[in-house]
Write a structure and sequence with these properties.
Length: about 180
């Protein structure tokens, strides 16, 4: 997909801010856990990821004896967006009384911190499966049905002819997601 004069920049952040950027024209292609709604947007689901509550194995005994709520928490955002969804889905309640040790809006940073033993976090299965098999991470809770998170791809609908670069990027991201799901 290398074409002269084409520059692709990736930006990470919270979904609402990124969706606003798409609506404002600052972003051309968006992958988000929230569907971007509104006139002039084209949105489709592309991938379902499962969430897992994980930590370094050193936290396993404490979680078993005192409950998972006793393990320090590593979160993606101050509102505990991923944690909140997991707690409601699995435990049927809001997360309360958790000790937030660190907030980092980057899943790979949360993974690294969990691997280093800083606390527990909720991450997508594709990030943690190899570490669970290697026993460098452990599941602190194994629900019968893991919570799902759907990822969406969104672009603005063109007013004239579609931009071939944006269409190509969208198609490539969609193909990668579909391949990962199979």
């Amino acid at each position: 997909m290398s074409r002269p004069g084409v520059r692709i920049a990736a930006r990470f952040g919270l979904a609402d801010e990124l969706i606003d950027g798409l609506r404002a024209g600052a972003t051309d292609v968006l992958v988000s856990a929230l569907p971007a709604r509104g006139p002039g947007l084209s949105v489709e689901p592309i991938y379902d990821e499962e969430f897992a509550l994980v930590a370094h194995p050193r936290w396993q005994e404490q979680a078993a004896e005192e409950g998972v709520d006793s393990v320090p928490l590593l979160s993606y955002g101050p509102e505990l967006p991923i944690i909140r969804r997991y707690w409601r889905s699995v435990f049927g309640r809001r997360p309360s009384g958790l000790s937030v040790r660190l907030i980092a809006p980057d899943l790979r940073t949360l993974l690294r911190l969990a691997l280093d033993g800083a606390g527990m976090t909720v991450l997508p299965d594709y990030l943690v499966n190899d570490h669970l098999r290697a026993a460098s991470l452990t599941l602190l809770h194994a629900p019968e049905v893991a919570p799902l998170n759907t990822l969406f791809i969104a672009t603005r609908r063109p007013r004239g002819l579609p931009d071939p670069v944006i269409a190509t990027v969208r198609e490539a991201i969609t193909a990668i997601a579909r391949d990962a799901a199979s």
